[in-house]
Amino acid sequence: MTMSRRQALSLLGLGAALVAAPGCSLIPGRAAQPRLLTSTAALPGPFTVPLPIPKVAEPIRPGHYEFEQRETRMEILTGLSTPVWTYGGQFPGPTVRARSGEATTVRVINRLGVPTVLHLHGGHTPPEHDGFPTDLVQPGTARDYRFPLRQRAATLWYHDHRMDRTGLQVWRGLAGFFLVEDAEEAALPLPEGDRDIPLMICDRSFAEDGSMPYPAHPDRMGVLEAYMGGVLGDVILVNGAPWPELKVAGARYRLRLLNASNARVYELSLSNNARIVQIGSDGGLLTAPRPVDKIRLAPSERADVVVDFSGHRPGDHIELRNLAGEGRQAQIMRFTVDRDEPDDSRVPATLSRIERLDPRQAAVTREFRFTSGKTHHGTGWLINGKPFDPNRIDARPRLGDIEIWRISSDVTHPFHLHLVPFQVLSVGGEPVTATPEWKDTVEVRDNQVVEIITRFTGYRGRYVLHCHNLEHEDMVMMATFEVV
Ligand code: C2O
Ligand code: CU
To answer: Which of 75, 287, 335, 420 makes a 20 to 30 Å CA pair with 277?
Structure first.
């Protein structure tokens, strides 16, 4: 199937602006945009399967987890068997629930036949445990990743990070939730237990035999050039199930939304006048609840929200929709109220305190230009005109310093920084005046400049920054910084 440029753009919610201002991308028109891979399998109707809740991982002893990476088969589409790459036989992988300040070790045993890398996205992690893209776990070997977790409560996730192959290996299934909890958050009367639900949203496409094909390059980069703008699936999975349904009580729920897609951007909203109250972001709780109509999530962004179903009657359906999608990609999942339940949860007016980083204290301002350009293999995605080179250090922030980074784009790029969260200072020249929040990924939209501020804390060593459109990342849109 071919998609018109208009359709491709509207899938991303970009629309007319980009048509009017194609920017300075070296890649002409449609090739720069994510491209839909169309399923040939018969697809199920919406809301026919129950939402799976990924199992919470059982430690083998306190603070130690063991995940065997192996291929398994799962029935994702009814009647079809899909080969999936998993942590511990599950897709999504087991949910780790860990405590802030308590070191947690994840042992990865690689039985996949290809090298892997584990990265804890949003983790404040020493460099040797952060999953540098060339720091491989070879097939048939094991490795301990140690996470000190000296960081506040937040919805993190872990996923593969192998050099040139992250898009492929995440598409195959290598991703799971990692929830950090702390005393501050536990003291709040937020919904918890089975009313605290992680939702991993990602798109995939299915061949007739049930497999999830990926347009991989046979010998070098992860993805075919034709898909270098990003791979979009036409099936929306939530926790690994297509357009599922969750039966809920007429009560408050905390939903931890994660966009685990390779390249798709969502604008999530609820039908039936149901309200969304955002309470958290990539880096944990906001200072105060924020009522919103919709939530835009680029790849790897998270939003913690509370939805109150108590105004709805048993039998009512509330759909979670994607305003940035069309047709079936505009549907995500459905909540159906089927019971009453006592509910003493609430959303307090004050959630947390966040120090606002002061731009006047910045030691340096750095520029990072995210554009397409020439690589060793043809065209790819560059930062400051350079393809990723693991042996080159692109920035050397000093431990403890505050820095401002100015990130600019040609087409849209979700910028992600390892090691430390940041605050957004300005978007497209407009200062951000809202109360501060901690982010680890920010979408830099077409021809835009986003300024962030961060403080490099914790560990010296070598880390990456990159675009979290995984096809862009594999097509070398990554750079190295070393905290000195
Ligand atoms: Cu979600 Cu460098 O990764
Ligand atoms: Cu990008």
So the answer is: 420
Contacts of 308 (CB under 8 A, 6+ apart): 251, 252, 253, 274, 275, 277
Rounded distance from Cα 178 to ligand 1 centre (Å): 13
SS3 185: helix
For ligand 1, whether the C-beta of 321 sits within 6 Å is no
308 CA from centroid of ligand 1 (Å): 32
Residues lying with their CB under 5 A of ligand 2, a single-atom ion: 413, 467, 469, 472
Instruction: Give the pLDDT band (50/70/90) at residue 375.
Output: confident
Question: What pLDDT score does 5 carry?
Answer: 40
Tokens of 108: 């990865």
Q: Is 300 in the pocket of ligand 1 (CB under 6 A)?
A: yes
Alpha carbon of 160 to ligand 1 centroid (Å):
8
Confidence of residue 23 (pLDDT cuts 50, 70, 90): very low
Cα within 13 Å of Cα(18), Cβ side: 25
Q: pLDDT band at residue 24, thresholds of 50, 70 and 90?
A: low
**Those residues with Cβ within 8 angstroms of residue 83's Cβ, 6 or more apart along the chain or in another chain:** 71, 72, 73, 172, 211, 212
What are the structure tokens assigned to 58, written together?
């059982």
Q: How far is CA 135 from CA 138, 143, 172, 433, 465, in A?
A: 9, 11, 20, 40, 16
Question: Could you tell me if the CB of 119 is within 6 A of ligand 1?
Answer: yes
Q: Is 44 left (phi over 0), alpha (psi -120 to 50) or beta?
A: beta
Q: pTM higher than 0.90, yes or no?
A: yes
